[in-house]
Amino acid sequence: MNALLVDDEVNNLDNLQALLGKHCPEVSVVGRAGNVDTALELVQLHRPDLIFLDIQMPDKNGFELLKALPERDMEVIFVTAYDQYGIQAVKFSAIDYLLKPINIEEMKGAVDKVRQRLENRKRNLQLENLLGIIEQRVAKENHRIALPSQKEVRLVEVQQIVRCEATNNYTSFYLLSGEELVVSRPIYEYEELLSHYGFVRCHQSHLVNRKHVLSFLKEDGGYLRLADGYKIPVSRQKKEEVKRLLGF
Predict the structure, then answer these.
(1) Residue 86 pLDDT more than 80?
(2) 148-158: b (≥16 Cβ within 10 Å) or e
(3) Confidence (pTM)
(4) CATH of the domain at 239
(5) What is the pLDDT of residue 123?
(6) Are residues 62 and 126 in the same domain?
């Protein structure tokens, strides 16, 4: 696959290119850019399959490059120095990112996922979802979260999620439709992402959408009765906080 590297620091470009050459021989670097304007020219020239994109750069950031692209049919792996602005939206759209200094196994894993997607290439709906959030083109109540399973990545409207339940390092999402989606990521990751959408962690194993909470039941220490008919336990440690957040 042909790749474009975009980073404003030359040593970062050199390091990433060296790591790809050594550990990801299927990636051919066709161009390097230190700013968004140069990157746009190289995208038009080379039509890369994949862009390794730094987020924070002088003048224009990585998201502005994505906004300026006439077509968004390439794959993107973000590369960033720390958990900075925009990473929440990137996580929300389940787009791969690498933290500097780059972990070789994480890089290889991200490249392998790109390779698999390119085998059945289509318009990158996850990038469209990311830009809808970043540009605020989509009202917050209509935001969709990307939930990757073994077979596909589903984009689900946040307010269609009734609750989430943890099983070891897996998280099950229960939707208003009655459907269950299982994602191989721990629930604490989604607690952070969904806290801005009215979700409350009421128990070690449960995260609930306050929009779908019908009542607080005082029996056996406390339960939340939800719109889908389920009763979710409230832990003793979180009881007062949950009641305060939900207005009970």
Answers:
(1) no
(2) eeeeebbbbeb
(3) 0.71
(4) 2.40.50.1020
(5) 55
(6) yes
